[in-house]
């Protein structure tokens, strides 16, 4: 589709000159003789770019720019200023212009600025589309994912959230266990009651007991008044016991009693306290192994393991890496002095190839670090932490792909599928998700290309990044 430009100038000669420069560059150009005329035209049709003179009678270019931004027209604006008038140029940029150009205009420089502004606006549109998809298509109670494994967990949360059953969440550190626990709480009838979380691994036995059950005045040195514990704080709501696999046997016995009866005594007290709390437990350990080794009570394990949620590590859902990376880049933009909006292709490839032992938490920290060191608006490979430096491809050689124990038709189908998927990944990267251009390049019809993308789970919008065409690979979660 040809890009549409609206030229605004009260001098007919200037309008005609700009038209003669722009139309051979492949743009559709319309002209308006005043700011009022320009606003009327923008009400009637959409433009990709407005080029306006600064000094015009009735409505100046600055006033027109203000109206365009106030009315939130999704259009780039370039303002033409007098030669050497840096004050006016600065004012236009402060008012929201995408760029400015001094008169008389150099045709090549004008076309360069037009293309650059168009690319910027396209990036803004792409980011807005991604933002919409993050919140509408790939977001579930603040968890961002499009991987089938995580979507299955979302379905499980919807199903078991309304129940009062105890839930055991298993997953490596940083996979998002607390976010899943919060999603369970939000999906329950207890959503308007407290959600309380406690990391059991960071406290010794005596402190953990006091934190869970509270204490009476004088129970120990420094206990100057009664203090309610986490069970009381979560009464009527949900209590997350994170890293429950790390608690000592004596504490396991006390916790088992509360799960069985809903009753406990504060430390140093004799009064029984009854609570109504839904327990969600989480751990990075395999509790079956802990039970077999005698480090975890079998009866407590059975009490906890009523509903089981296993969160896959990030390396098993690499298709989430681009989504999460862009989400973290956007969500942290307000903490940086300069706007970092893009991730270069090579940097994204490095993110996709990393194994992420720290999972989503490690990815978030990597993006925040890279954005802090980025020079400009793009994260490049050299901005990434050292452990993420691009590595040589680990793809097996052709001989390793050949398994003579398999039948040739089956093997051929698999190999063709691998080649086709990578071929279309690279095409989408090269053409930033433009299916029509991919079709022309491949010699296939657009319909055939679309069918291939659906077959291999490739979404063109994942590749629409200016300066950072995002390839897909083999929703946010962190604990």
Automatic annotation (TrEMBL):
Keyword Transmembrane appears in the UniProt entry: no
SUPFAM superfamilies membership: CheY-like, Homeodomain-like, P-loop containing nucleoside triphosphate hydrolases
Keywords: ATP-binding, DNA-binding, Nucleotide-binding, Phosphoprotein, Transcription, Transcription regulation
CDD domains: AAA
Biological process, per Gene Ontology: phosphorelay signal transduction system; regulation of DNA-templated transcription
Superkingdom, natural source: Bacteria
Record has Calcium as a keyword: no
Domain Response regulatory stretches: 4-118
Modified residues (4-aspartylphosphate): 53
Protein name: Transcriptional regulatory protein ZraR
Organism: Aquisphaera giovannonii
């Amino acid at each position: 589709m040809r890009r549409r430009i609206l030229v605004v100038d009260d001098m007919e000669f200037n309008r005609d000159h700009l038209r003669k420069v722009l139309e051979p560059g492949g743009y559709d150009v319309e002209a308006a003789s005043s700011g009022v005329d320009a606003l009327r035209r923008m009400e009637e049709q959409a433009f990709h770019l407005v080029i306006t003179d600064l000094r015009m009678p009735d409505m100046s270019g600055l006033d027109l720019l203000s109206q365009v931004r106030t009315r939130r027209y999704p259009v780039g604006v370039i303002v033409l200023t007098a030669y050497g008038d840096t004050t006016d140029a600065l004012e236009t940029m402060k008012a929201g212009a995408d760029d400015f150009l001094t008169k008389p205009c150099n045709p090549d420089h004008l076309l360069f600025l037009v293309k650059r502004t168009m690319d910027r606006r396209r990036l803004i549109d792409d980011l807005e589309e991604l933002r919409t998809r993050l919140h509408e298509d790939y977001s579930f109670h603040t968890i961002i994912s499009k991987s089938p494994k995580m979507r299955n967990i979302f379905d499980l949360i919807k199903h078991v959230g309304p129940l009062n059953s105890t839930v055991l969440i298993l997953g490596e550190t940083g996979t998002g266990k607390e976010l899943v626990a919060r999603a369970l709480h939000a999906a329950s009838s207890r959503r308007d009651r407290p959600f309380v979380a406690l990391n059991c691994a960071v406290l010794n036995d005596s402190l953990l007991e006091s934190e869970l059950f509270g204490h009476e005045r004088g129970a120990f040195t420094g206990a100057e008044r009664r203090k309610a514990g986490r069970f009381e704080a979560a009464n009527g709501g949900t209590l997350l016991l994170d890293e429950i696999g790390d608690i000592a046997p004596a504490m396991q016995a006390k916790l088992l009693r509360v799960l069985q009866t809903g009753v406990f005594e504060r430390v140093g007290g004799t009064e029984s306290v009854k609570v109504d709390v839904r327990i969600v437990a989480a751990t990075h350990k395999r509790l079956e192994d802990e039970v077999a080794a005698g480090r975890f009570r079998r009866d407590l394990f059975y009490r906890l393991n009523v509903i089981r949620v296993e969160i896959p590590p990030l390396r098993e859902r690499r298709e989430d890496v681009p989504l999460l990376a862009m989400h973290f880049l956007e969500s942290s933009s307000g903490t940086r002095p300069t706007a970092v909006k893009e991730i270069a292709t090579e940097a994204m490839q490095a993110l996709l190839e990393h194994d992420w032992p720290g999972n989503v938490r490690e990815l978030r920290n990597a993006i925040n670090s890279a954005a802090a060191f980025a020079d400009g608006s793009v994260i490049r490979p050299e901005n990434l932490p050292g452990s993420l430096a691009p590595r040589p491809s680990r793809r097996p050689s052709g001989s390793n792909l050949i398994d003579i124990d398999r039948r040739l038709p089956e093997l051929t189908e698999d190999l063709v599928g691998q080649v086709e998927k990578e071929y279309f990944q690279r095409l989408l990267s090269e053409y930033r998700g433009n299916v029509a251009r991919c079709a022309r390049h491949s010699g296939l019809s657009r319909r055939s290309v679309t069918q291939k993308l659906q077959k291999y789970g490739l979404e063109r919008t994942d590749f629409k990044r200016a300066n950072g065409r995002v390839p897909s690979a083999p929703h946010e979660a962190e604990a």
